[in-house]
Amino acid sequence: MKKRFGKRDFILIAVLLAAAFVIWLLISRTKFAKGASAVVTVDGDVYGTYPLSQNQEIPIMKDEKRTNILVIKNGKADITEADCPDRLCVHQKPISMTNETIVCLPNKVVVSIEGSTESGIDSIAK
Amino acid sequence: MRNKRIAFLGAFLALALICSYVESLIPFYFGIPGVKLGLANIVVVIMLYTAGAKEAVCISTLRILLSGFLFGNMFSILYSLAGGLLSFFVMYAVKRTKKFGIIPISVCGGISHNIGQLSVAVLVVENYRIYSYLPVLLFAGILTGFLIGVAAQEVIFRIHKTM
Predict the structure, then answer these.
(1) H/E element, A61
(2) Fewer Cβ in 10 A, N or C end of chain B?
(3) Tell me: the pLDDT tens digits for A12-71?
(4) Domain assignment of residue B29, given as a range
(5) How far apart are CA B70 and CA B68, in angstroms?
(6) Do B101 and A9 meet the contact criterion of CB atoms below 8 Å apart?
(7) Cross-strand pairs, A69
């Protein structure tokens, strides 16, 4: 218990940093594409798919209660209202890139961005 | 001897609870939802070195349950338990190798804490996509683990000096 920060300690932290960096690179490679639509899932089931090209406001209902409001504006999806106390999802920045997500843990609501234009057609068909 | 031990563990539990309380009052907000400093983990790291592994995991679990009932909800207990237990077992395993100091052990704890919580979040919302948060949480775990490790190390050295 003499040395406060040895060489081995430094190496282990450097390796962990490098690993985090590699994982970040791998995940961000799939991220930097402009998305086409916002997919909302509630409890793991798809709630709806909404094209980002169209400005709209979507109330997310669960058990006939409005839990969150999703706003699509200028090609970006954002949650502007939530009925949970911490409102972490409201504080998250608007998303527009594929694989970006906004999560509301208490309501189990996930908004994610998808790139394919086909999902946009799906929502029109609905 | 046994009574002294119980008193010590009680004091540690109170200290951990106060850390949780302080953190709920002052959110150390790093700009990313869900990233916290994890002040109470200082107590877990200190106990791992001074009181023993069994005691550390006991106090950590009790602290999570009590602070969950006091300042959180059922969900926060679930997330904290997953993160707390995983980070404890990782820290214990790394400490057992006897190759690393306090700071890297705390860093490993910080990372595994975030991995545990994210895994529970994936199970709860049933959407694997939120794993795209993983890189951010890894970096955050390294940073907070480092800070907690530095603080815990200073305390542990001073405790060893006076005992």
Answers:
(1) strand A56-62
(2) N
(3) 999 999 999 998 888 877 656 778 889 998 888 888 899 888 888 888 888 878 888 999
(4) 2-162
(5) 5
(6) yes
(7) A59, A81
Contact predicate A59/A67, CB 8 Å? no
The two structure tokens encoding residue A7: 């060489």
* Domain count along chain B: 1
Q: Is the pLDDT of residue B83 over 80?
A: yes
Residue indicated by tokens 């850390």: B19
Q: A45, A107 in Cβ contact below 8 A? A: no
pLDDT more than 70, % of chain A: 87
Query: What's the number of domains chain A is made of?
Result: 1
- A50: domain range? 37-125
Q: Is residue A45 part of a domain?
A: yes
Write the DSSP string, B5-41. HHHHHHHHHHHHHHHHHHHHHS----SSTT----THH
Contact B99/A at CB under 8 A: yes
Position A64 in a domain: yes
Token readout for B1 is: 């001897």
CB contact under 8 A, B142 and A8: no
Amino acid, single-letter form, for residue B159: I
| CB pairs < 8 Å spanning A and B | 96
Which residues in chain B touch residue A23, judged by CB atoms under 8 angstroms apart?
134-135, 138
